[in-house]
User: Fold these one by one.
Assistant:
Number 1:
Amino acid sequence: MEMEGEVDWTHYLRRPLFVCGRQAVDHDERWLFYQPVSRIYRGKYPGQSPAWVQNAADAGIAWLEMRDYGDPLDLLGPFGNGFSLLPEMQNLLILADTEDDPGWFWKLLPLCEQALDRGGRVTFLIKTRNEASVAGLVPFLPVQVEVRTTLGSDQWLEQVESTVAWADQVCAGVPLESYGALLTLVRTARFRVDRNFAQVLVNADLLCGVGACLVCAVPTARGGLSRACVHGPVFDLTDLAE
Ligand code: FES
C-alpha cells in the first residue's frame, strides 16, 4: 500500500506536442512527438539556452522524457489548424529556419511524406549556422526530397526567391519578424499571392489550447491579434504580413 507521503502530487502545466513522425516497433507503430520549449521559460531564465531550460529547469519536460513506451499520458486535442496541402499542389517548398529554432525541422518533417504520398515533389530548404548540424537531420528525410542548405541571410533570401517561383505551395517555419520579407519575395516571384499558397507555422506559446488564456496571441496584418491555438498555429502568410 502506498502511504500518502510517498505519492508525488506535483502537477505540471500542459505542453504542446507536435507529431513529427511514426516508427515501426515490433509489429507495432509509435508516434514520435516534438516538444517545443516554451518562450515562457526562456523569459524566466534570460540568457540561458533552451536546451539548458529543457534539461534542468523544466521539471515537466524532464518528467515527460522519463516516460517509457506504454506509459499512459493525459492528452487533449488536436487543436487549431495545421498545414493544409492544396489539391493542385505538385511542387512543395518547405522552408525551415533552424538558425532561429532547430524545432522547425521536426515540425515540418511530416509534410514531406504527405506531399510524396500524393505524387508531389518536395524541396526542403534549411537555413542553418553550420552545415554539420544539418547533416545529422538529413537522414530523417525521405530520399526523394531535395535538400538545400543555406548559411547566412543573403544565401537564404536568394534560395527562397529562386525556389518560390518553382513551387505550387510554400510551408514555412520561420521567425515572425521575417514574414514581411517572405511575403515580398513571394509577390516578386509570382506577382500575386493566392490564399493558402504560403502557410506559416507560428512559434507561439500554447498553454490552454482552447482560446481562453490569450498566451498564444499573434499580431495580424490588419493590426489585431489572433489566437494561435484556435486559428493557427498554421496561418495563411497574408493574414499575418502585408
Ligand atoms: S493557448 Fe490559451 S488562448 Fe491560446
Note: The first helix runs from residue 39 to 44.
Number 2:
Amino acid sequence: MIAPSPIPLDRFKDSVQDRNNARFFPAEAYTSEEFYRFELEAVWFREWISVGRMEEIPEKGDYFTVNIGNEPVIVVNTKDGLKAMSAVCQHRGMLLTDQPKGNAKGFVCPYHRWTYDLTGKLVGAPQMDGVGTYDKDCLGLPRLAVEVWQDIIFINFDTEAAPLSERLAPLDPIVKDWGLTELRGEFLTDPNYRQTHDYDWNWKVYAEGQAECYHCDKLHSDIPGIQNIDCNSMHINVQDEERGVFAFEMRNKVIDATVNHVGTSIWPPIPTLSEEQRWEQHSIVISPNIFMQLMPDCVILLSWWPTGPGTMRIKRHRLYPQATMQRDDWVEQHKLESEHIRYFVGQDDYAFASVQEGLQSRYAPHGPLSNREFVINGMSKWLVERFERADAEARERASIKEPAE
Ligand code: FES
Ligand SMILES: [Fe+2]
C-alpha cells in the first residue's frame, strides 16, 4: 500500500527545471528510510528492472535470484520461456532457495517440502489433503512480468505494465552495430568471477554518478582510456524524459580508445563496427537501473537495485565478442585489463561512499547541475513524474477511505 511521499514533492521542483537551472534532489531523498519505502512503491515495484543477461541462464532449469528492496525473486529459464516469480513459499514464507544461481527441475521448499514447478505452479504439498483452505491452483508463486531486450533480462512487479520494447525503441539504432546479442559476459570464462557487489550508498548516488562525464577527466584523470576520450565533445543523441531513456556520445582522441590499462583496445574491434564507430564512445542510461558504455572492443553493462535507503547491489557485466574470449592470450591479458578496471571502479567507489556521507551532513548541498550533467536532469524528471503519480494515488486512496460526514 502506497503512502504519500514523506518529502513534500514541491521540494523536488528545483530538480525538474530546464537543464541550465536544475539542481540535484534534496539530500534527504538519498538518506531517508521513509522516502526509500515510498520510492520502492513508486518506482521499483512498478517499472521494468534490469536483472541480468540471457547467457547467465542458457539451459532449461537454469535460474538466478535477485532481491529488489525486500522482494526475493527467482528468474528461471523454462521450456515455456523465461519466467520470473517470487521466491517466497506460499505456505509459511520460507525462501525457496538461498542460492544466487543454479539449475533446478522445480523448487522444493526445505521447510515442509511444498513443491513448485519451474513456472511457479504448486504441484505438491504433504499432508494437505482435505484441508479446506488448501487450493493448489491459488497457491502458486506470485508471477512477475519478464521481458528481454538485447539479451538483457528485465522484470516488472506490475504484471499490467506496458511492454518495454516500445519504450526502448529509440535506443535500437544506437546499439544495433554493437550486436549485443552476439556478445557474452566475461564471467563465462572465470568460474570465480563475482558479478554482484554490495555497497553503502543510495542507488541514486550511483545512478547519477554513472550518467555524467563531468567527473571523468577529473576523478579518473590518470586513467589512460579516459585520457583518450575527448570529454568536451559530449553530445546527446537521445534525451527522452518521458520514456526514461538517454544516450550520449563522445569522440575518441585516438581510434579504438577503451577503458583498460593501455587506453586503446588490446582486442580486435567488435567486427560489426564501422571505422567511424571505432572513434565513438556511446553511453546509455535506461531509468531506473541501467548504464551501458559501448566501446570499440567491448560493452560495459551495469545494473543496480536498492537493498536499503543507503545500500545497493550492483551487477556488472563486461561483454565481449565470443572470438575475443576464445583467444590464446585471453586469460593472461584479460587479467591485466580486469586489475586496471578494478582500480578505475575503485575511484568511483571512493567518491560514491564519500558523497553518501556528505549527504547526511547538516551542510549537505542542494547543488546545481553542471552543463555536463544534463542526463541527470532528464532522469530526475522521469523519477519525479513517478513520485507525483504515486503520491497522487496515495492521497486519492486516503481521501476515499475518510469516513463520510
Ligand atoms: S514454508 Fe514452505 S513448505 Fe512450509
Ligand atoms: Fe566514474
Note: The chain has two domains: 49-156, 168-378.
